Automatic annotation (TrEMBL):
Similarity remark: Belongs to the pirin family.
Protein name (record): Pirin family protein
Membrane-spanning ranges: none
Note on cofactor: Binds 1 Fe cation per subunit.
Alphabetical list of SUPFAM superfamilies matching this protein: RmlC-like cupins
Length: 320
């Protein structure tokens, strides 16, 4: 998925200095962003927090009734230095990329794209598509050792599941309670889809060395005693061995966690680098048709890169 902001700012993120070594309860307020015909709620990067582990970008969209709408229509655009994670609760999205992947993504199937040194992709709803569209799009920052790796795409329709009374956990990336996702990871992290039945009151085992956040996809819940509405995200810090969850209705949550990301990164538009020069080189490569390849089969023009900001990069950490 793309950041379609026409004037994206340069952001420096990462480093352990601003990560609390204790549990916290920090509610992150989303901002709305337009993604073609789809309006998304952007939760990371946030004015209050820019990363959770290696997770550096979180969009939540829907549920939207697109029966008479085109649905998601994101033209070909580049990525470098990151992984994208596509996760649906309802609907379908057709993924195409410049390494030749063509895959329809359906609810609770993992679409995982590793951009490495550079890849381009497009995402769209087919002409004939389901009525509802609801999901999340996430980015994972790649560490130095892997950020120039060969680009690749993975599709995993069958993911490991852990159950408890009133709770079904689908492990999207990483591992949880002994279950491990087949998706490739490059830093210690986890993502898990939590489906809770109304009245469920459970404690989820978590890693004390990880920092965590929870995105509410649907329903009314309490996470560590904090009431959450759909589209909200609660940052939880680290230092926990379990996470209390209570469902006030049938609910869906997305758990994100990982070891605090040590490296500082620069995010601009759809590119992640370490210096402003790298970002400028990536933009020039996309504009000139180098490095990122071609997305075949998409009926339309690629997304043009916005202009780089004229102001120099100001160092910033994980929080503001």
């Amino acid at each position: 998925m793309s950041d379609l902001d026409l004037q994206p700012g340069l952001r420096e993120c990462g480093g352990r200095a601003d990560v609390s070594g204790r549990p916290v309860r920090e509610l992150l307020n989303p901002r709305e962003a337009s993604l073609g015909a789809t309006v998304v709620r952007r939760l990371l990067p946030n004015l209050g927090r820019r990363m959770v582990g290696a997770w550096c970008f979180v969009d939540h969209y829907g549920p939207d009734d697109i029966a008479d709408e085109p649905g998601m229509q994101v033209p070909p655009h580049p990525h470098m230095g990151l992984q994208t994670v596509s996760w649906l609760h309802e609907g379908e999205v057709l993924h195409r990329d410049s390494v030749g992947s063509v895959q329809t993504l359906r609810p609770r199937q993992l679409g995982l794209m590793t951009s490495g040194r550079g890849i381009a992709h497009a995402e769209q709803s087919a002409v004939s598509h389901p009525r509802l569209l609801h999901g999340a799009q996430l980015w994972v920052a790649l560490p130095e050792a892997y950020r120039h790796t060969t680009p690749a795409f993975e599709h995993h329709a069958d993911l490991p599941v852990v159950t408890a009374p009133g709770l079904k956990v689908t492990v999207v990336l990483g591992g949880l309670d002994g279950a491990v996702s087949p998706g490739a990871t490059y830093t210690p992290l986890v993502s898990a889809d939590l489906a809770l039945a109304e009245g469920a009151n459970v404690r989820l085992p978590v890693e004390p060395d990880f920092e965590y956040a929870v995105l509410t996809m649907s329903g009314a819940t309490e996470v560590d005693g904090v009431p959450l509405d759909p589209g909200s995200m609660l940052y939880l810090g680290s230092g926990r061995s379990e996470l209390p969850l209570r469902a006030l209705s049938d609910s869906g949550l997305l758990l994100l966690g990982g070891e605090p990301f040590e490296e500082k990164i620069i995010m601009w538009w759809n590119l992640i680098g370490r210096t402003q020069e790298e970002i400028a080189q990536g933009r020039e490569a996309w504009t000139s048709g180098d490095r990122f390849g071609t997305v075949n089969g998409y009926d339309g023009s690629p997304l043009p890169a916005p202009a780089l900001p004229v102001t120099p990069l100001k160092p910033r950490g994980r929080t503001r």
